[in-house]
Specification:
The chain has about 140 residues and is an all-alpha fold. Helices cover about 65% and strands about 5% of the residues. It contains five helices and two strands, in the order ααββααα.
């Protein structure tokens, strides 16, 4: 298994844990509670900023799930050479604008949070993979 496949597998398992957590609430509540606790240090888990699956909140917010799903998708396209830095800036700016402006004067939507996170995650993984590949 090459490093790109390994990266995709790790991110895929991470995403799977996020999606499976609400499904475990009624079936194996102790594991679900552990997973909500596991994800709590990396996400605020505010219900109004989160998606729900089968009536149960995902353990990360809409923006975080966008970032992780974007990274998973992007991991299949990543190459050993990262794109120019302006690509990273262009991908992260929409998320930063959405998050920054919502702190000051407006409320974002979960769809917008998800989409801006998806874009950022998709591109960030190109730089992550290039950094991993350059260490070999």
């Amino acid at each position: 298994m090459n490093s790109r496949s390994s990266l995709a597998a790790v991110i895929g398992i991470w995403c799977l844990l996020i999606v499976v957590t609400p499904l475990l609430v009624g079936r194996i509540p102790l594991i679900a509670a552990f997973l909500y606790l596991f994800f709590s240090p990396i996400c605020h888990q505010l219900p109004e900023r989160s998606f729900f699956l089968f009536g149960h909140q995902l353990p990360v917010c809409a923006r975080c799930i966008g970032i992780y799903l974007g990274a998973f998708s992007g991991s299949f396209f990543a190459r050993k050479n990262s794109p120019p830095p302006w690509v990273l800036v262009a991908a992260v700016v929409p998320m930063a604008l959405d998050g920054g402006t919502q702190l000051v004067f407006r409320e974002s939507t979960n769809v917008l949070r998800f989409v801006t996170g998806l874009i950022a995650g998709f591109v960030v993984v190109f730089y992550l993979y290039a950094a991993i590949a350059s260490r070999k």
